[in-house]
């Protein structure tokens, strides 16, 4: 990914066997600002997909591993009422899009178009699918919520900055997070 700045290239590079990528930082904000939406997000919160509620200044830790060609991530957020964990697995598919499977076991999958923005990685969702037993319904077109992620070096703090938003037609902003973190590769303990 030559269009990415060096710290962002390092963050998205494969993790060598026996090592783990560790990020530690703070989300400036995470969750939904819409109080009426928080109860509807609770089932997704319990499944480790989205934070139901609105929080600021939330410490977090991410651990990245590369397993069988997939980037496996576990994010631990230190919310006021305890730790909350989100897991996902990202793979580059033959059609050139990234697919992110969310949850443990995976409940949702999102397909993303990949781009760059001044050295940062930019992902924009194209389609979202669910797993309901053996069924895998897919939502695309005008009904699909739009997920946007931007991740790159924050010039002011010299840390990695991540920003994610989920917006739905007719409703607007459903969910967001933004924050900065440091990142390193270390031997697996």
Radius of gyration of CA atoms, rounded to a whole number: 16 Å
Order of adjacent strands in the largest pleated sheet: 1-2-3-4-5-6-7-9-10-11
> Which term fits the overall shape?
globular
CATH topology grouping: Lipocalin
Secondary-structure element pattern, one letter each? HEHEEEEEEEEEE
**N- and C-termini, Cα separation:** 29 Å
Q: Regions with pLDDT < 50 over 5+ consecutive residues?
A: none
CATH domain class name: Mainly Beta
Number of helices: 2
Number of strands: 11
CATH architecture classification name: Beta Barrel
Q: Mean pLDDT, as a whole number?
A: 91
Q: Give the % helix.
A: under 10%
- What does the largest sheet look like? 10 strands, antiparallel, barrel
Number of domains: 1
* Backbone structural class: mainly beta
Strand percent estimate: over 45%
Descriptive overview:
- The longest helix is centred in the N-terminal third of the chain and has 9 residues, at 38-46.
- A hairpin with a 5-residue loop joins strand 4 and strand 5.
- The chain has one domain (6-184): Lipocalin (Beta Barrel), CATH 2.40.128.
- A 10-stranded antiparallel beta barrel has the order 1-2-3-4-5-6-7-9-10-11.
- It is globular and about 40 Å long.
- It has helices at 6-12, 38-46, and strands at 19-31, 54-67, 70-79, 82-92, 98-102, 108-117, 120-130, 138-140, 146-154, 159-168, 172-187.
- The relative contact order is 0.21.
- The chain is built from 2 helices and 11 strands.
- With 189 residues, it is mainly β.
- The model has no long low-confidence stretch (mean pLDDT 91).
């Amino acid at each position: 990914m030559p269009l990415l700045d060096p710290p962002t290239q390092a963050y998205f590079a494969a993790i060598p066997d026996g090592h783990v990528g560790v990020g530690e930082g703070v989300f400036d904000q995470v969750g939904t600002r819409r109080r009426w939406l928080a109860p509807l997000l609770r089932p997704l919160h319990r499944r480790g997909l989205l934070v139901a509620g609105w929080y600021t200044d939330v410490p977090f830790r991410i651990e990245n591993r590369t397993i069988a060609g997939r980037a496996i991530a576990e994010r631990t957020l230190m919310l006021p009422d305890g730790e909350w964990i989100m897991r996902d697995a990202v793979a580059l598919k033959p059609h050139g899009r990234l697919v992110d499977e969310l949850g443990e076991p995976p409940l949702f999958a999102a397909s993303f178009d990949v781009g760059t923005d001044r050295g940062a990685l930019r992902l924009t969702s194209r389609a979202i699918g669910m797993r309901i037993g053996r069924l895998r319904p897919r939502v695309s077109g005008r009904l699909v919520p739009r997920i946007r992620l931007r991740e790159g070096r924050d010039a002011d703090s010299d840390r990695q900055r991540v920003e994610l938003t989920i917006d739905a037609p007719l409703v607007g902003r459903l969910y967001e997070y933004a924050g900065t973190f440091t990142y390193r590769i270390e031997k697996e303990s």
